[in-house]
């Protein structure tokens, strides 16, 4: 079995090297100043496109919380004379799919369509209308606002949502990363058509956009597509300044809840997307709690003690320090024991670092699984969008496996000791044991 496993790892590593070697990324700017990332692939008659803007939730303020999310949500619900039903029918007619992504940093619109002329032309026409000529109809705004508010009211009763929201505020305080992406009920109620339109005009700018194209078109066709999608975008230079993320005040909050299980979350400021410590932290996190059943947290808390069904740790890199987070659920009566053990496992890992066996297994698994991140056009276009938005090197995907392979025990240990302070973490327990 060991020989078969090693052969499988070697096969995946070889596939990874082949995939990366055959992924030539072409880069240029449109006449309106938009950067375009393009990979040609003729294997399937499919075209995947994403257009990303610096319009994530961190561009909101406490008074306008929810504006960025609602703007993205309404883009394809009325545009240049087309109603939301007409847009939906036009896409369905050619089997195309519009999607989106939204986080603290960016708002993006995605399109998947057949590359044949009729289907591609109609789908691209809809995408161009949606991102360049949104209308934000008042009646649609009222309806979607009501839906979001209803969703927030329901979410605010759920222990996992309460824990996540509380943790984010504890971690980031007044920093824009601490804002709730979907907004607050009080701020949503004050948003009007002009607020969304003003936000669109100030954040959906050609000069700040990134177009990513992957699939069955030539370079010349991709140039035309990019120009068509960006020539009518608002002009101007985006304001991308955010305050620095500061270290939070260490605190543990215990919140009562009728749920039978406690939801436990711990966090500390973690990784930037272009962080020089990125790879040692990624490898170390895999060993600590990102590697599923082979991770230390899972072994100690589930396998050895039976205190939780699942436990994880993760880094979520952003433009500034995204969260390093540990999370688990456990029965109320054992929540304090589970929290103490989780903290101890983290302290021990930071103090001693990984073993040689753990490091080798982690690097093999990360490298071996890397081809699965690039096994579809959609996954590739998502990586292109990430590389473009965060201004990463064009060789990022080629360099990833090499960088993982070079990580040492000393690097993991030193980096975690320098970057993660267990005594400074914020912690929330929702469904805490009530004192008698």
- Alpha-carbon distance between the two ends: 54 Å
CATH-level-2 architecture of the largest domain: 2-Layer Sandwich
- Name the helicity range: 40-55%
Give the name of the CATH superfamily of the largest domain.
Answer: Metalloenzyme, LuxS/M16 peptidase-like
Enter the CATH topology name of the largest domain. Answer: Cytochrome Bc1 Complex, Chain A, domain 1
Number of strands: 13
Q: State the name of the first-level CATH class of the largest domain.
A: Alpha Beta
Q: What would you call the structural class?
A: alpha+beta
Total helical segments: 16
Envelope shape? globular
Order of helices and strands: HEEEHEEHEEHHHHHEHEEHHEEHHHHHE
Please give the domain count. 2
């Amino acid at each position: 079995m060991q020989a078969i496993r090693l052969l499988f790892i070697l096969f995946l590593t070889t596939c990874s090297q082949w995939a990366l070697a055959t992924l030539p990324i072409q880069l240029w700017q449109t006449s309106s100043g938009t950067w375009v990332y393009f990979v040609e692939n003729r294997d399937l008659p499919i075209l995947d496109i994403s257009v990303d803007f610096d319009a994530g939730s961190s561009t909101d303020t406490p008074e306008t919380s929810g504006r960025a999310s609602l703007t993205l949500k309404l883009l394809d619900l009325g545009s240049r004379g087309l109603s939301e039903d007409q847009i939906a029918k036009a896409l369905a007619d050619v089997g195309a799919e519009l999607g989106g992504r939204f986080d603290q940093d960016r708002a993006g619109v995605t399109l998947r369509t057949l590359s044949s002329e009729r289907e591609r032309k109609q789908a691209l026409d809809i995408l161009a209308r949606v991102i360049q000529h949104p209308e934000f109809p008042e009646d649609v705004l009222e309806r979607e606002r009501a839906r979001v508010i209803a969703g927030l009211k329901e979410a605010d009763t759920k222990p996992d949502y309460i824990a996540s929201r509380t943790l984010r505020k504890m971690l980031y305080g007044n920093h824009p990363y601490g804002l709730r992406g979907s907004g607050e009920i009080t701020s949503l109620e004050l948003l009007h058509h002009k607020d969304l339109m003003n936000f669109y005009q100030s954040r959906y700018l050609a000069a700040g956009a990134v177009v990513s194209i992957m699939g069955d078109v030539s370079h010349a066709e991709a140039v035309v597509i990019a120009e068509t999608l960006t020539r009518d975008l608002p002009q101007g230079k985006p304001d991308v300044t955010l305050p620095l993320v500061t270290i939070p005040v260490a605190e543990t909050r215990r919140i009562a809840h009728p749920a039978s299980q406690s939801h436990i979350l711990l966090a500390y400021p973690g990784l930037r997307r272009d962080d020089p410590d990125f790879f040692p932290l990624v490898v170390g996190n895999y060993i600590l709690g990102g590697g599923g059943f082979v991770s230390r947290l899972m072994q100690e808390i589930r396998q050895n003690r039976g205190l939780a069904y699942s436990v994880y740790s993760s880094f979520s890199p952003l433009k500034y320090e995204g969260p390093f987070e540990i999370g688990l659920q456990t029965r109320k009566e054992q929540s304090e024991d589970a929290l103490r053990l989780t903290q101890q496992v983290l302290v021990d890992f930071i103090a001693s670092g990984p073993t040689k066996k753990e490091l080798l297994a982690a690097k093999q698994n990360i490298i071996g699984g890397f081809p699965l991140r690039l096994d579809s056009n959609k996954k590739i276009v998502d990586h292109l969008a990430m590389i473009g938005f965060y201004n990463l090197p064009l060789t990022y995907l080629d360099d990833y496996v090499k960088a993982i392979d070079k990580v040492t025990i000393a690097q993991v240990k030193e980096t975690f000791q320098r970057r993660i302070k267990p005594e400074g973490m914020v912690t929330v327990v929702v469904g805490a044991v009530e004192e008698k």
